[in-house]
Design brief:
8-stranded mixed beta sheet, Arc Repressor Mutant, subunit A, 16 helices, Rossmann fold
């Protein structure tokens, strides 16, 4: 389709087609094309006169014509606004837009050959983002439309995880909600105490004792009912499946300890997702963006002393999680606002695919108001620098799939020598060296406290038997994956001598990631499994797995083959 600029229409043509009619058609076409959306304010008459190169009287005739067909409406003292499109004005708008016809150049201009259009024709719009003045009385996010790089659709569709709902987390969540980020996943394992109220805008005195994640999510929904929120009262290091991380556009860390930062860093790197870290103390703060494959990651930044500290913490396998943090970090709401705002803005840049300074840190000294940026040096053999390969999505769940059933799938894909590698140690038993009593535990290390390590009879510290490898021959293979600490929607690692395979427990997707907490009356569309399940080429799904989906229940039936028993997963 060929378009002819308005200024190229000749005078003779204008005498047959009044210029106001052409302007009317042009504006109607721009409304139909979505340049000016329903509820948005048109540019001022002065800007439109300049844009079309016509007189004010000609422009007003065009605006009146559009008003007559109820395509725009005037708000006296403010300006012209695009009306809601319906069957009546939409049809008339198409009729008006089709009145632009071909013509010859104006006098003094060089004629160019073009093909006559066969259907409706509209004048072209500028390739750059058009200036759209929103209806600020009705559109809560209207002013963002004036930002040159802002894309409302991207922001509304974005999935952002906020880890930590303390002082920093409150500021980040508040910013994301105000900017209209469509889907926000909030994670925290702590509860609200009175001391939090001096630094946390989302908490109230009546919230004392309640879970931070839940309250923050509820207040976020109150601030902007158009966003969708989900919360998890749990530990990011153990309670969130990698499949959740995998479906995020960006992760924002608002944490106060290295252990949690290290976990988020590794998870993000494994599934190739960027994350934004922030830290505050008194007048000091820092913010940094880590992107897998671009510069240093968080683990690269650790000093030798920091690595020794982490090593000491991990050297005692039953050290209770509540004993890891030795004290509270003193902060102020002002430094939390500054660093939280930087984190939120970096996340917004990532959502819009804008460049970020990956592997660099922004230092802010609130005492001297000095800001400086430092570049980290990547560590070549950093343990975090590993990204998962192709992920096979299985319609099975952590709570209903047994270890034996999972291992049969792994062995069929990779051979009988393949093993399942757990993310954390599994405590098998505790044995007293004095009275020789043994207690079977079979729990992940995160669920076993330091006090439990002592013998209840003689009080001595017991020996710990643990493993992080599952071969399929274990006596507890009838236990479910969830019972040994594997979270819902997790991505499992299996390996043999030659390669790794990665399996996602995609049957958990509907329940593990829904963004529908605190929704009222409006039922949000559920997140569905992908239509196809990826299986390696050497694995023949039709010969090994027969998958049958029933409404809300997902069942996996592995048909009996020779000596392999039939598997049934609810």
């Amino acid at each position: 389709m060929t378009f002819i600029p308005l200024e190229r229409l000749i005078v003779d043509e204008i005498t047959r087609k009044p210029l106001s009619e052409l302007v009317t058609a042009k504006l109607a076409g721009m409304i139909l094309d979505g340049v000016y959306k329903s509820g948005y304010q048109l540019p001022s008459e002065r800007d439109l006169v300049k844009q079309f190169g016509v007189s004010r009287s000609t422009l007003r005739e065009a605006l009146k014509a559009l008003e007559e067909i109820k395509l725009i409406e005037v708000q006296h003292g403010i300006g012209w606004f695009v009306s809601e499109l319906d069957e009546n004005n939409l049809a008339l708008a198409h009729q008006v837009a089709e009145k632009i016809t071909t013509s010859t150049p104006m006098k003094g201009e060089k004629a160019e050959e073009y093909e006559a259009p066969s259907g409706p024709r509209r004048l072209p719009v500028a390739p750059e983002k058009p200036l759209v003045i929103p209806n600020l009385k009705k559109d809560r996010l209207g002013t963002f439309s004036l930002i040159s790089w802002w894309e409302r659709e991207k922001v509304a569709a974005a999935n952002v995880m906020v880890v930590g709902a303390g002082a920093l987390g409150n500021e980040v969540i508040k910013d994301l909600v105000l900017m209209g980020v469509g889907n926000i996943y909030i994670v925290d394992f702590d509860t609200i105490e009175m001391a939090n109220l001096s630094r946390s805008i989302l908490f109230r005195e009546s919230d004392s004792g309640r879970e931070k994640a839940e309250v923050a999510a509820a207040r976020a929904k109150e601030i902007n009912p158009n966003v969708h929120v989900q919360y998890l009262n749990g530990d990011v290091t153990t309670d969130i499946g990698l499949g959740v991380f995998r479906r995020m556009d960006v992760i924002i860390g608002c944490l106060d300890n290295r252990e949690a930062r290290l976990a988020v860093n590794r998870f993000a790197y494994w599934i190739n997702k960027p994350w934004v870290d922030g830290a505050i103390q008194e007048f000091l703060g820092l913010a940094r963006v880590f992107v897998p494959g671009e510069g240093a990651c968080f683990e690269c930044t650790l000093t030798d002393q920091a690595r020794r500290d982490l090593s000491i913490r991990y050297s005692c396998p039953l050290l209770a999680r509540e004993n890891i943090l030795l004290g509270k970090v003193p902060t102020t709401p002002t430094i939390a606002s500054i660093i939280g705002a930087i984190q939120s803005q970096e996340a917004m840049k990532i959502i819009h695919s804008k460049p970020v300074a990956a592997g660099m840190v922004i230092h802010f000294n609130g005492m001297t108001n000095e800001v400086h940026v430092t570049k980290y040096t990547p560590v070549e053999d950093c343990e975090s620098h590993w990204t998962y390969g192709e992920i096979t999505e299985l319609p099975i769940r952590a709570e209903t799939t047994t270890i034996d059933e999972m291992m049969q799938i792994i062995h069929r894909d990779m051979g009988p020598e393949a093993v399942l590698e757990l993310d954390q140690e599994l405590i098998l038993s505790l044995k007293c060296p004095n009275c020789h009593t043994e207690e079977k535990i079979l729990q992940p290390i995160s669920k076993v406290g330091f006090n439990q390590a002592h013998c209840p009879s003689c009080g001595l510290l017991r020996e710990t038997e643990m493993t992080h490898i599952i071969s399929g021959d274990e006596p507890f293979s009838s236990r479910t994956l969830a019972s040994i600490g594997i979270p819902a929607l997790h991505i499992l690692r299996a390996y043999n001598e030659d390669q790794y395979y990665f399996y996602e427990l995609s049957g958990d997707l509907e329940n593990a990631l829904h963004f529908s907490h605190f929704e009222k009356q409006i039922e949000q569309p559920r997140i569905k499994l992908r239509d196809r399940i990826k299986i390696k080429e050497k694995v023949h799904l039709k010969d090994r797995l027969k998958i049958k989906l029933h409404e809300s229940a997902i069942k996996l039936n592995i048909q009996q083959q020779e000596e392999v028993p039939k598997i049934h997963v609810d």
